Amino acid sequence: MLLTQQVDAFIYFPSIAGSQANLRRIVERGIPVVLIERSFAELEVSRVLISNFQGGYDGAQHLIALGHTHIGVICANLASMPVERLSGAQQALTEAGVDAEVRIMSRGSDFEAGYEAALDMLQRPGRPTAVFALADSIAVGVLHAAAYLDLRVPEDLSVVGFDNISLAAFVIPPLTTVAQPIYAIGEAAVRILLHQLQDPGAAPETVMLNTELVVRQSTAPCAR
What we know:
Elements: E1 10-12, H1 19-28, E2 33-36, E3 46-50, H2 52-65, E4 70-75, H3 83-96, E5 99-104, H4 111-122, E6 130-133, H5 136-148, E7 158-163, E8 176-179, H6 182-198, E9 206-209, E10 212-214
Parallel strand pairs: 1-2, 2-3, 3-9, 4-5, 4-6, 6-7, 7-8
Antiparallel strand pairs: 8-10
């Protein structure tokens, strides 16, 4: 649809099946494009990336530092979420020798899916004392599952999210999360596109932005 409307440039956030084929169509037309938080090695285009691996590592490391030795990790379908988030979390857990239960959901990162995955995980014998949800929307579902099971957060269960959506600071308790630099992502993408429109022969540019762990009230030292 956008190609038929003859847009001058694209900021492209591929998150569904078929994204790579669509991106190739844009590149073949010679239209400037900037990828957000994704990278296709076979296509030379500009990209604005975030340190998903480090963010996953830092989120897991935070729980490890609090003394949690049985940690649940809930991840959306990897077609809709950067696999580096999970890889970073797994790296931190492996280095620490921590027992982890990883749940990769069959569908996207929404509240209901997070609720259902957490409900199943937390009702099993020897439940985790902490859950790292690799999207804040999943984490909100985890908080609801904990409330349903009469588990206190963070006294009985610590919860960490990822993204730092605006809701994260207003749930109860406020959510510890790995923040993406949303403003900086948009600023970098537009800057690159404006440069490419002014200089069509400019080489593709890659910008890597750092995540930041934001500690709030949903995490605490392990009580058991």
